[in-house]
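Page 37, top half.
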Amino acid sequence: MRRFDYLIFALFLGLLSFASLEAQAVENSLTGKACSLAKILDPHLPCDKAAITSPETITDREALWSVIHTICIPAAAIGFNYPCLRVDNKDGYVVIRTPDKEKIDFLIAPTRKMAGVESPDLLKGDAPNLWAAGWKERALVAEVARKKLSWNDYALAVNSRQTRSQDQLHIHLGCVDRNLKRYFAVHKEYRPANNWVIIRLSNINSDLLMKALPADGLSQNLFAKISSEAPWARLFIDKQTVALIAIEDKSFKGFVLLVSLDRVSAESFLAKSC
């Protein structure tokens, strides 16, 4: 992390005034809540451990929302995209990379407070389309992977209330799990697109509801679609782990929407690397 990046944290948490800060002063002054929030995004940041006065920001389920609301949005207002890589106020989302740099994993999260998949605001007409936003931002994955990726290399997934660690809605964006990619290269039961079917994947060990979507199918509200169409989904809305897998072969280009009502993590659908 560059020294000037520290200035962004300090500025919005009121540690020192922007005009008087120098890079070294920022590094030395990064204490308390600023240090804790920063460590969520960069665990190797050289903060003094004694400066973290409360465990709330590291273990708190509101930590992600704190980063978005306290740092990312104010920083973007003056032209800085850090720590969030993107703050899109028009479409209502941010993009942020997870702290584990061993994985290629980006988070797409709303700029307003939404706890998770069970949020009733997700079913409303003005809900941000996070699936479409994630797909639009997929070039970030290829950039980190440092190679050209195909349509069917990508996947997005969101955890249920039971399997998530943060109470701010966020969709994971990365490369599809290799076993899943091989499965859909062989099995074609995701067609026709007008029916939900049940499949069981050995590597996930869970029954999954599945429905195909055309390439332009992300313009709709997928959370509302699942709630209104998928069997039992509305009854167990907080138990849904949802994945969107990009599919391309000679006869079909689009997506499959997968819904698990078991304790399946979103990360089960994603590869650590591309």
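Page 37, bottom half:
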Amino acid sequence: MTETLQIRPAVADDMKTIIGLIDEARAWLPTKGTDQWARPWPTPAARDARVLRDLNAARTWIVEDDSHTPAATVTCSPEGNQRLWTPAEQVERAVYVARLVVSRNHAGQRIGEALVDWAGARAVRDWRAKWIRIDVWTTNEALHNYYEKRGFQRYGTCQLDEDEYYPSAALFQKPTAKIDQESASRFIELPVRLQTRASRPDPASSSQSAGLSITQWTVSSSRLPMPWHADGITPDEECCPVTAGSAVAGLPHHNLAGKDRKEM
């Protein structure tokens, strides 16, 4: 019988947990013959700033098992990275999934695959999304094949200038009409937890001492997240990591149209 898991909105106090899941995945990925996430890109500080930004914008979720042990995390948004998806492409409603990471202790349970379906089903409910979209590590062909076997279509590969190196430029999408509803229903949504008020932790670090006051953070399904930048890699199945993506705050917008997009 497939285990039912709990999923809740992550808050800034979860920063250390999420970085821990990412670092665990980063240590495991070389065993699969890929350079994906060989180092935080482009720097640890920039990576941590992206994680914190998504936490503060209520775009990140944490999955826990019955013992409240973190099993996975995912970040999703109705707005894509503008360096990868053009405004014209984003006219169609979609959910953009990134930073999908499954703990090695929970590998092989198809949690990553179920999280993708859950994100799609929730996006259909909340903003009638037509697509689930991801950006995948460009050179990880095994990961590309993984997604194609799960109903994703290769949309294209972004061709960037040499001075705009971007490691996760392979784009995939899947119609929300092909969501596995049984898979998506594995998760029981919980309300956001109480957290200590941390005076907005420093984006340059993954943790900061918290204050003593307590605040209730609430998340409304009608509150659409702001534009986001995120990375994603997931060690889910034993065969390969599940998803990959990266973005850097502060880089100029690159309009990927015409010759800049290599169609697959």
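Margin note: The two ends are 38 Å apart (CA to CA).
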